[in-house]
Amino acid sequence: MTDKSPQQILKEKLGGRNIFLIGMMGSGKSQTGPDLANILDYAFVDIDDVLEKASKQSIADIFEKDGEKGFRDLEKQVLKEIIQHHSLVIATGGGLVTVPENWGILHQGIVVWLDLDIDRSIKRIQSDKKKRPLLDNDDLLKTFSSLYKRRKPMYLECDLRIKVEDQSPHEVAAMIAEKLPTILVKPENQGV
Ligand code: S3P
After folding, report:
1. 96-150 pLDDT, tens per residue?
2. 3-state secondary structure (DSSP) of residue 160
3. What is the pTM of this model?
4. Do 114 and 29 form a contact (C-beta atoms < 8 A)?
5. Closest residue to atom 9 of ligand 1, CA basis
6. Position in ligand 1 atom list of the atom nearest CA 151
7. Are the CB atoms for 110 and 18 separated by under 8 Å?
8. Comparing C-alpha atoms, which of 184, 158, 181 is closest to residue 29?
9. Is the pLDDT of residue 192 over 50?
10. Distances (CA, A) of 75 to 70, 95, 97
11. Of 47, 46, 22, 52, residue with least CA distance to 34
12. Are 164 and 172 in contact (CB under 8 A)?
């Protein structure tokens, strides 16, 4: 009898359930996702990328034309499409958690919060505000901090909270893979 590797055991415990990465802009969801998918032998999907391709518009253009409400409606549609598939690591946009209806979907999978402090987040974002119209104003610190404060209670609804500091995406992915078994029970034991 051959012993199963920790990776095989983790895969079995996951049973194909999708993993959603949530967290503020700059927390590294899109960078960590591919590495995590690689470790788990899952596919990676970035909701913002799918949304831009499907709508043939940039996020900035959608916000400008249809406002945040229009963007959130599209985001919800994309989320509903994506979860028709299994075995995915899904990078969500930072504000997806603010739509209560989305939580019915998120809770069908495993929700991992990449929790990066405000100062580090802002440092990362400064160089890349392109697809982040909500931050498109002069006082980045004030705007970001108030969004973070409003959203924190929603991020706390996660299944797994990962404190991120200065690790590389690969290191963060390894931390997630290491912690996942602590929150997983086999699907058959859950009645799924
Ligand atoms: C948003 C975050 C962005 C993008 C959009 C709105 C938000 O994605 O979905 O600009 O409300 O926090 P990232 O979290 O990948 O930056």
Report:
1. 999 999 999 999 999 999 999 999 999 999 877 778 999 988 789 999 999 999 9
2. strand
3. 0.94
4. yes
5. 93
6. 12
7. yes
8. 158
9. no
10. 9, 10, 11
11. 46
12. yes
pLDDT digits (tens, 9 = 90+) for 27-63: 999 999 999 999 999 999 999 999 999 999 999 999 9
**H/E segment holding residue 153:** helix 140-155
Q: Which atom of ligand 1 is nearest to the CA of 125?
A: 16
Any atom of ligand 1 within 6 Å of the Cβ of 13: no
At 1, is the pLDDT very low, low, confident or very high (cuts 50, 70, 90)?
low
Q: Which of 151, 137, 146, 134 is nearest to 60 (CA)?
A: 134
Tokens of 81: 């499409």
Q: One-letter amino acid identity for 168? A: S
Angle at 157 between CA 153 and CA 163, to 5 degrees: 85
The answer to whether the CB of 164 falls within 8 A of the CB of 28 is yes
As a whole number of angstroms, the distance between CA 65 and CA 166 comes to 37
